């Protein structure tokens, strides 16, 4: 590993997260759903605020520089309180392939295991053509749970399938839902 330190992020970190996401999205085949010109401060603040309300946002820092970020949020109705979804991870192009993503996922799983109400499941989607990400997610324990045919339109007009994946967080002891 590259000696990264993991820290929780808040909307106060939005400007450095914006820079990271734009850098990550600028490389061909980044895996991010948005192109660099679609990543705005409004978008970044929105996902960071959502992650801070019952979800999680973590940053990987090396030499005081943000080199990776992962966030996920609870889905909404109480019946889904045990699920973290809407997960996105971005790693700076110069740091890809150096274990930053794996460290961020390990920190996410550790954080999720200590959340209340308990998290028992983490969800994400990945493009079928993003084979490196799919290999990483499967190595981490995510399971492919379907295929959304032709869901992603690429810049050249072709489409790829989106692959929904789930990870069961076995360490979480799910508490019963409170009575209404």
Automatic annotation (TrEMBL):
Keywords annotated in UniProt: Acyltransferase, Transferase
Q: Which residues form the N-acetyltransferase domain?
A: 4-170
SUPFAM superfamilies with a match to the protein in the record: Acyl-CoA N-acyltransferases (Nat) (SSF55729)
Entries under Gene3D superfamilies matching the protein: 3.40.630.30
PROSITE patterns attached to this UniProt entry: GNAT
Instruction: Please give the name of this protein.
Output: GNAT family N-acetyltransferase
Give the organism, scientific name.
Answer: Sphingomonas cynarae
């Amino acid at each position: 590993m590259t000696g990264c330190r993991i820290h929780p992020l808040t909307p106060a970190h939005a400007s450095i997260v914006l820079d990271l996401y734009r850098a990550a999205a600028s490389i061909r085949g980044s895996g991010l759903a948005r192109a660099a010109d679609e990543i705005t401060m409004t978008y970044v603040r929105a996902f960071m605020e959502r992650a801070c309300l019952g979800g999680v946002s973590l940053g990987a820092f090396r030499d005081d520089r943000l080199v990776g970020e992962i966030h996920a949020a609870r889905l909404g109705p109480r019946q889904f309180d045990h699920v973290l979804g809407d997960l996105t991870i971005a790693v700076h192009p110069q740091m890809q392939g150096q274990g930053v993503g794996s460290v961020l996922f390990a920190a996410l799983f550790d954080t999720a295991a200590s959340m209340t109400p308990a998290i028992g499941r983490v969800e994400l989607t990945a493009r079928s053509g993003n084979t490196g990400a799919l290999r990483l997610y499967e190595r981490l324990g995510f399971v492919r749970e379907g295929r959304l045919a032709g869901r992603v339109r690429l810049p050249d007009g072709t489409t790829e399938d989106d692959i929904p994946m789930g990870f069961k967080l076995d360490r979480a002891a799910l508490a019963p839902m409170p009575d209404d």
